[in-house]
Amino acid sequence: MRRGGGLITLEDLATYLPAWRDPVQFEYRGYTVTSMPPSSSGGATLAAMAKILEGYELGDLAWHSAAMVHLLAEVWKRAYADRNTYLGDPDFVEIPLDSFVSASYAASRRSQISLERATPSTAVGPGLESYERDHNTTHLSVVDGAGNAVAITTTINSFYGIKAVVAGAGFLLNNEMDDFAAKPGTANMFGLVQGEVNAIAPGKRMLSAMTPSIVSRSDGSLFYVVGSPGGATIITNVFQNISNVVDYGMNVAAALAVPRIHHQHLPDRIDYERGSLAPTTIAALKAMGHAVRERFDPSSLYPYIGDIQAIMVLSDGTLEGASDPRRGGAAVGY
Ligand code: DON
After folding, report:
1. What is the rounded CA–CA span in Å between residue 78 and residue 108?
2. How confident is the model at residue 299 (pLDDT cuts 50, 70, 90)?
3. 137 is catalytic
4. In angstroms, what is the span from residue 333 Cα to ligand 1's centroid?
5. Taking a C-beta distance cutoff of 8 angstroms, is the pair 229, 118 a contact?
6. What is the distance in A from the centroid of ligand 1 to the CA of 278?
7. Which residues pair with 214 in a beta bridge?
8. Does residue 133 register a pLDDT over 60?
9. Angle 42-53/234-246 helices, nearest 10 degrees?
10. Could you read off the pLDDT of 180-200 as tens digits, one per residue?
11. Is 34 helix (H, G, I), strand (E, B) or coil?
């Protein structure tokens, strides 16, 4: 740090310790999902999405039909509006986690969704009124022979972090500061527009979107282990993946290979991977008032959406693992 003119002192490093926090846990259509707590927004936002979507028979809507994509986009833009407003490091800000993921709040969010028309993101604010404001990435899913499961996502933010290796130490420095709202109200690298709760403060943890998650069946048995990189898209990636297996009955390989879509409140736009939406579906979504954009710019750092690594435990105990074809991971068993 001294050599590179950095700000961080030995004392800063010594006092920055891992924080043990209880995972976020919620029910989705009879399954129990255990996921990452704040200071990642992943588990809480995943729960908020699931609670709103439980009020709809999602699996009855044809997969990637205009009706299905519209519904997900409407739910996601609301969940991200809340995420960007209410979530930050719980050591610094009071987070209304219970209300955020409650059935009654989900019902009130549902009541604002039209199944025919897109609500412009400018008309979608954060929904919890009572809350007072006090003033590159890798995922591993592991299951062992005894049925223990681990979901780990780890990040240095963008590719190669700040693109500097500490000479003699051999590791890269991250650029995680971009996960803070460096200037509240202004978009970060992933286009997330976040507020004061996630402003920079000494010793504070930045708001992540990492969503390592473990899904169990209603009898408590392990069903699914999942996670992904992808910046702001991580939460919708993981949600789609869980929904693909729970709502659409896909196997693990199909669930992570099929093309994905994304909406994060701002920009007010549905992104879709090449090949994921039929021209008629895109036309129908535009007619509903959505902006729709194909995410395929080979020069972009993130032309695709995410990189899921998942393991499914079949009811007979067989493990099926799959690695996303997007970035070149691998599924291994031994
Ligand atoms: O913690 C976060 O939300 C970000 N640092 C993740 C960045 C990321 O996934 C980049 N890789 N695609």
Report:
1. 11
2. low
3. yes
4. 27
5. no
6. 29
7. 34, 225
8. no
9. 40
10. 999 989 999 888 999 999 999
11. strand
The candidate with the shortest Cα–Cα distance to 329, out of 245, 228, 241, is: 228
DSSP 21: -
CA distances 265 to 144, 172, 212, 259, 317, Å, are 38, 32, 22, 20, 39
- Choosing from 45, 85, 137, 281, the catalytic residue is 137
DSSP per position, 30-62:
TEEEEEPPTTBSHHHHHHHHHHHHTTS-GGGSP
In residues, how long is the chain? Answer: 334
Quick one: what percent of the chain has pLDDT higher than 90?
Answer: 80
Q: Check pocket membership of 206 for ligand 1, CB cut-off 6 A.
A: no
Q: What is the DSSP string of 239-270?
A: HHHHHHHHTS---HHHHHHS--EE--SSS--E
Distance 209 CA to ligand 1 centre (A): 7
255 phi and psi angles, rounded to 5 deg? -60, -35
- Which is more confident, 208 or 334? 208
What pLDDT is recorded for position 121? 94
Give the nearest ligand 1 atom to 156 CA.
5
Please name the residue that has the structure tokens 């006090």.
134
- Residue 149 to residue 225: CA distance in whole angstroms: 7
Which residue type occupies 302? Y
- Report the C-alpha gap between 149 and 319 in whole angstroms: 11
3-state helix, strand, coil in the chain (%, to 5): 30, 20, 55
